[in-house]
Amino acid sequence: MRFHWGWIGRVMPVPYVPTLGPVHPDDPIPDLFEAVVETAGTGCFLPYDKDRRWSDTKTERVLVDAIEHDQRQTLVPTLVERGTGAVKVHVYGSAPDSLSTGADLARKLAAAHGAAKARVVWFLGPDQPEAYSRGVGTRVQLKDFADGPGLAPAVPVSRSTRNSPKTFALISPPSQTRWPRTASRSSTSRCKQEPSAPFSPCSMLAAWPEPSAPWRP
């Protein structure tokens, strides 16, 4: 599967890669899209996948045969193979029917794969009304820490009063916390083939970059 990046880039207000999540705008995003497709179904992690901290096997994979990719929109479905299972369709498109088309595909694939949940992941730009983020939205804010901590967040942040697990530092050593800015598809050939883990739900996301520093493709 080869993506035409000119078709995706112009309708991607948030640098978000299926199965990986938000990435830095300067990362080689086209290569990351190709990499998650190449590793689909192998059960292995890419070197920069944050989920490798929590599991021995990758439990979300791209449903390559169900990808819809044209000049109007790109739909990238994934299957979460944990618990009762979930299908998520990532919608990159601005056509009036993009969201409904993604929802229809999610329902169809959930039935075909025996998944209990079907969800749509779609992305809002910084020019969209703030009301869209309430209830079903998740804000993605990007920060480059190369120049220090920077200014305070532009939105309220609540400090948790719960104690963090004492073992958290052991789960996430410093050597594994920074994603590389470069990604080579050749790295997938070194990945050990592992069986898929059992099926689990995951949440819907609607996201956009920090208004003070919007990302443009």
Please, could you describe this protein's structure?
The protein is an alpha/beta fold and 217 residues long. The protein has one domain (5-144, 161-207). Helices cover 16% and strands 17% of the residues. The chain has four helices and nine strands, in the order αββαβββββαβαβ. It has helices at 5-9, 29-38, 98-113, 168-171, and strands at 16-17, 21-22, 60-62, 68-69, 73-80, 82-83, 86-93, 117-123, 206-207. The strands form two sheets. Strands 3, 4, 5, 7, 8 and 9 form a six-stranded mixed sheet that branches. Strands 1-2 form a two-stranded antiparallel ribbon. Strand 1 and strand 2 (21-22) form a beta hairpin. The radius of gyration is 18 Å and the shape is globular. Mean pLDDT is 74; it is low at 167-217. Residues 173-190 have a biased composition (Polar residues). Residues 156-203 are annotated as: Disordered.
Oligomer: single chain
Number of helices: 4
How much beta, percentage-wise?
15-25%
Distance between the termini: 21 Å
Overall 3D shape: globular
Number of DSSP strand runs:
9
Contiguous low-pLDDT stretches (5 residues minimum) are 167-217
